[in-house]
Design goal:
The chain is mainly α. It has one domain. Helices cover 44% and strands 7% of the residues. Helix 3 packs across helix 4 and helix 4 runs parallel beside helix 6. The longest helix is centred in the middle third of the chain and has 29 residues. The radius of gyration is 18 Å and the shape is globular. Pfam families: FhuF, FhuF_C. InterPro entries: FhuF_C, IucA/IucC-like_C. One of its GO terms (molecular function) is catalytic activity.
Length: 271
């Protein structure tokens, strides 16, 4: 079995109403039939260079971006939020797998009145379970789901974004990494069930410290590479984990705003 094909067992597992309220609510997951038909395309279609250029050029004035490269960075942040959020929340908080792949994902790109309105529709929303009690069963299942998400879905998209826009791949991968950190350290940190919290912590530790670079399609683990301790801000307003690279959000905001992890905050003193 390819690593890009999640290992699963036949089961009748489903998301509980409480789980779906998060996945279909804040994390913006939805069935294919509810997609924004006018502003979406299959993930695999986006791999066509012409389609990717068309989308970047369409979004550039809508986002107020000065260039394709900055548009590609901002779009990658949104795709990262939608893909990693639902996939990894399902994995760690629900112990249920979702297949995030080029053939199962639809990329929406709605952006209205200065805000993203896009969701992540999937062709197949049936959760995949792992073999309960089987030695190493969950580990292999987790590896295949993570490989499908990162190496199978995001790496080809980021490679094409870099190719057609000139944006650095490192920026795209750090855009992805900061979404994962926020998911585990903020959204899932407040889960009350001790068993779920132990699983969340174990999965996050594995992603940061043990997941092989091949699962990302790279020669390094970007989640480990970009993870750094909080640093004091030049403004004197405490400490914060700051990025290594700049996502250029400030160049597409009017008035100028900086994302909360912007590395420029190290240098900007409070007026």
């Amino acid at each position: 079995m390819s690593r890009a094909e999640p290992a699963a067992v036949e089961s009748s597992c489903h998301f509980t109403p409480e789980e779906w309220s998060v996945l279909g609510g804040a994390l913006r997951l939805k069935p294919l039939g509810a997609r924004d038909v006018a502003r979406s395309l299959a993930a695999r279609e986006l791999l066509k260079g012409g389609e990717c250029l068309r989308l970047l050029d369409h979004l550039t004035p809508i986002l107020g971006s000065p260039s394709r490269a900055i548009t590609a960075s901002l779009l990658s942040k949104r795709i990262s939020f939608l893909a990693t959020g639902a996939c990894l929340y399902s994995l760690s908080a629900c112990d249920k797998g979702l297949q995030f792949s080029l053939d199962n994902c639809v990329i929406e790109y709605g952006h209205d009145e200065g805000l993203w309105t896009s969701s992540m529709p999937l062709h197949d929303l049936q959760p995949l379970s792992h073999a309960l009690g089987a030695p190493g069963g969950r580990d292999a299942w987790r590896e295949s789901l993570v490989s499908s998400l990162f190496a199978g879905l995001l790496k080809p998209l980021w490679d094409l974004f870099a190719q057609v826009s000139g944006i650095s791949r490192r920026i795209l991968w750090e855009n992805t990494a900061v979404r994962v950190y926020s998911l585990y350290e903020k959204r899932m940190a407040g889960l009350q069930d001790p068993q779920i919290q132990r699983r969340v912590e174990a999965d996050f530790d594995w992603l940061l410290n043990h997941a092989e670079p091949a699962l990302f399609g790279l020669d390094y683990n970007p989640l480990r590479h970009f993870h750094r301790p909080p640093m004091p801000l030049a403004s004197g307003e405490g400490c914060r984990r700051l990025r290594r690279t700049c996502c250029f959000y400030y160049q597409a905001s009017n008035p100028v705003e900086y994302c909360s992890a912007c590395p420029l905050l190290r240098k900007r003193k409070k007026p």
